[in-house]
Design brief:
The chain has about 100 residues and is mainly α. About 45% of the residues lie in helices and about 0% in strands.
């Protein structure tokens, strides 16, 4: 497991972070909107998406696929994206990767 915490589907399987402190790599998906989308629309979308993410059927489906859902505010999601970008930029730089 490369995620930061053990999987709910496979709790007995340790994460790489259990052996390599600080290691975490995972895929994530999110919903975005154009920059000039009115705040009222963003608020409605955020509220409804977050409500869907806690629905038992959707939670069970994510779990069946080995994943989990997390909800956040638009500001928290923006911070998450910035943090992920910074983390992976360091990896790209350290590895000397170049776009082809």
């Amino acid at each position: 497991m490369t995620t930061g915490k053990r999987s709910d589907a496979l709790p007995e399987i340790p994460t790489i972070g259990d052996f390599v402190p600080g290691y975490e790599a995972s895929a994530w998906f999110g919903v975005g909107a154009p920059r000039d989308t009115p705040a009222e629309i963003i608020d409605v979308l955020n509220k409804e998406i977050n409500a869907g993410l806690v629905h038992p059927i959707l939670k069970a489906r994510f779990s069946d696929l080995g994943g989990s859902a997390f909800s956040s505010s638009p500001a928290e999601f923006g911070t998450f994206i910035a943090d992920e970008t910074e983390k992976w930029a360091k990896v790209v730089k350290f590895a000397g990767m170049k776009p082809e």
